[in-house]
Task: inverse folding
């Protein structure tokens, strides 16, 4: 298991390991987009999350820095952003991909592990398609093949299932882009949620998930009651959670309608500027701030759906 800490992942280097700076990766992606005249402010954050997910899915061996950079380059190219991929590769001075790997014996090949290394399959189920890929290799009489060939074959077989079109989505990289998500919020978000500064980030095709931000300090300023106390704040936050559950229920249906093959749609809720609200508005000492944070997290967990299909994270 690869252990992550804020801003870094651990990668292999020589016979040991070192840290890979995700903040620098994000900055280079922002620069690459700007140089390529691509106005996608959320793309860098999303690709950093893709790298995190890729690292979590790896078991046993650490990826190398070059492997992670080529993952990003391939993800950009697959999404039709080849110019961003080219600029990013130049900025990072990432060497060209190594020559095709030597042929491997297909009989003992772990195809699921091979597909987990392909960004195309980060959010797509691989169990069934891995079995079909092995069957196709046997039918073709191939006892040896390169990893790249096996991955390409699996992609081809995936589209043959008919559950997803081979055509690129209308928004390119995004399953639901920024403008469309803003329109969804205008239609679905209640006045209570708008006062709480609710924001839902665009949803990508590579790693579909719902990232929700609540702006607590500004929301607290709108609450009636002087002075502001926890007795006023907690019932009001309960209303926010109830409205948020309804909003997310609708958005989950929208995302699943665009990508019916999704096995999971993770939900992350970030409580922005909690420290400002708790320390400056409520003037709570540190220990009481921790207690209030637990109360807010508990309220979210009571109201928001938590299933194996929609795992919930609160930050």
Result:
């Amino acid at each position: 298991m690869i252990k992550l800490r804020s801003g870094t992942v651990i990668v292999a280097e020589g016979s040991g390991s070192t840290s890979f700076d995700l903040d620098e990766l994000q900055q280079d992606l922002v620069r690459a987009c700007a140089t390529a005249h691509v106005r996608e402010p959320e793309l860098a954050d999303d690709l950093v999350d893709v790298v995190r997910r890729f690292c979590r899915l790896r078991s046993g061996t650490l990826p190398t820095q070059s492997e992670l950079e080529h993952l990003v380059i391939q993800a950009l190219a697959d999404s039709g952003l080849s110019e961003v991929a080219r600029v990013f590769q130049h900025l990072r001075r990432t060497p060209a991909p190594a020559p095709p790997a030597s042929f491997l014996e297909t009989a003992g090949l772990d195809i699921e592990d091979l597909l987990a290394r392909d960004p195309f399959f980060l959010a797509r189920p691989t169990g069934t398609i891995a079995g079909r890929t092995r069957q196709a290799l046997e039918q073709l009489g191939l006892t040896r093949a390169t990893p790249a060939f096996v991955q390409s074959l699996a992609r081809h077989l995936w589209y043959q299932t008919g559950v997803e079109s081979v055509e690129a989505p209308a928004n390119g990289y995004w399953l639901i882009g920024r403008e469309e998500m803003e329109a969804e919020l205008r239609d679905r978000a209640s006045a209570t949620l708008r006062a709480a500064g609710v924001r839902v980030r665009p949803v990508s095709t590579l790693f579909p998930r719902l990232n929700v931000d609540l702006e607590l300090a500004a929301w607290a300023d709108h609450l009636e009651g002087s002075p502001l106390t926890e007795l006023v704040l907690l019932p009001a936050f309960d209303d926010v959670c109830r409205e948020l559950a309804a909003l997310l229920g609708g958005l989950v249906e929208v995302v699943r309608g665009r990508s019916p093959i999704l096995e999971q749609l993770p939900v992350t809720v970030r409580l922005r500027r909690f420290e400002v609200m708790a320390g400056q508005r409520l003037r709570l000492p540190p220990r009481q701030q921790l207690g209030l944070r637990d109360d807010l997290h508990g309220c979210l967990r009571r109201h928001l759906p938590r299933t194996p299909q929609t795992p919930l994270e609160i930050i």
